[in-house]
């Protein structure tokens, strides 16, 4: 966003495949929800469908259905809450979980325009919207960046990740937008505005920020970079005494 304001909607765009963007969106959403805010996470990573791994139960309709066969359904129909013990907060996810045929239709230009409308609807209903966005190479990624108030590049703390940041910045500029910040994962990068540390926890163990002080502090810095938010954390020991069970689909 050119005026520098944080806004409501952030597209977290992976600079490379496997950058850890999905996990970062879950950690960021959980931290903000634990601070009493309402957060929606929308899944533009149609190919990997990684957000669905953090959710249990039947995921129907998923986001691709809301952009194609179920386009008249309200956004709320596709939202699945992560069971956080957060006072007043909510973390609602709209994952992609679909067969290839529907994924292909959800990548069309018409579906991308509907995706922008879904993002706008989420912005009206939630305090924050985070879009898990793959590298800008498909219509839904372009739609996410176009609809976002801020575009944040997510890159692993490697030489490959650093080089990918520059390539992605150029691609974002090619579509008439700009990258507002860079977040490094699994360590730090000289070009990063914030960084998420390496962790030995399994990917689907996220969110770990609710019970690991180091991760909580790092994700709070990400929240500040992405939304100018200042979520409270407790003595470096995490935000909550307990969280709900997370069962991979």
Automatic annotation (TrEMBL):
Domain of life: Archaea
InterPro entries, A to Z: DNA_Partitioning_ATPase, P-loop_NTPase
Name of the protein described by the UniProt record: ParA family protein
């Amino acid at each position: 966003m050119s005026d520098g304001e944080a806004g409501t909607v952030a597209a977290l765009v992976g600079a490379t495949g496997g950058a850890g963007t999905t996990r970062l969106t879950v950690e960021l959403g959980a931290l903000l929800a634990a601070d009493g805010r309402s957060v929606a996470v929308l899944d533009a990573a149609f190919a990997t469908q990684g957000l669905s791994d953090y959710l249990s139960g039947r995921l129907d309709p998923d986001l691709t259905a809301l952009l194609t066969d179920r386009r008249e359904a309200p956004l709320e129909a596709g939202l699945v809450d992560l069971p956080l013990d957060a006072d007043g907060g909510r973390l609602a996810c709209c994952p992609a979980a679909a067969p290839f045929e529907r994924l292909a239709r959800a990548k069309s230009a018409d579906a991308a325009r509907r995706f922008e409308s879904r993002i706008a609807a989420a912005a009206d209903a939630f305090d924050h919207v985070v879009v898990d966005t793959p590298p800008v190479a498909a219509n839904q990624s372009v739609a996410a960046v176009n609809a976002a108030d801020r575009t944040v590049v997510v890159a692993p703390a490697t030489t490959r990740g650093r080089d990918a940041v520059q390539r992605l910045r150029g691609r974002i500029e090619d579509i008439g937008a700009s990258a507002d910040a860079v977040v490094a994962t699994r360590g730090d990068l000289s070009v990063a505005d914030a960084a998420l540390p390496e962790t030995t926890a399994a990917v689907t163990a996220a969110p770990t920020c609710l019970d690991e002080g180091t991760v909580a502090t790092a994700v709070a810095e990400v929240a500040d970079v992405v939304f100018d938010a200042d979520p409270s954390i407790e003595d470096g020991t995490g935000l909550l005494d307990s969280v709900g069970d997370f069962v991979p689909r």
